Amino acid sequence: xxxxxxxxxxxxxxxxxxxxxxxxxxxxxxxxxxxxxxxxxxxxxxxxxxxxxxxxxxxxxxxxxxxxxxxxxxxxxxxxxxxxxxxxxxxxxxxxxxxxxxxxxxxxxxxxxxxxxxxxxxx
Length: 123
What we know:
Layout: H1 2-23, E1 59-67, E2 71-84, E3 90-102, E4 112-121
Antiparallel strand pairs: 1-2, 2-3, 3-4
Keywords: Signal
Signal peptide: 1-23
Protein name: Attacin C-terminal domain-containing protein
């Protein structure tokens, strides 16, 4: 009785291990593994590591909606890169926005303008 239970247990264990290995196979490595350790954030060499520069670009976003009976809402937002440090960790972008309601029973609203800036630090 005990030997049949042990055989059944071993059979179930083999089925479980085989099914999990088939369900989650490990991918083959694509290239050599870099065994050189990277500096940690609290190590003294962390500040000397160059951060790859990110190419930032002009952004323009717009939206709106409404109906001829109620009028239309219109809004535009923009973000323009102004400055980036040599190591790419510090950057500053200028922002601007415009919004206005057009038409409808109350007519056009006064335009709403806005401007600002965004400072970014990459860890």
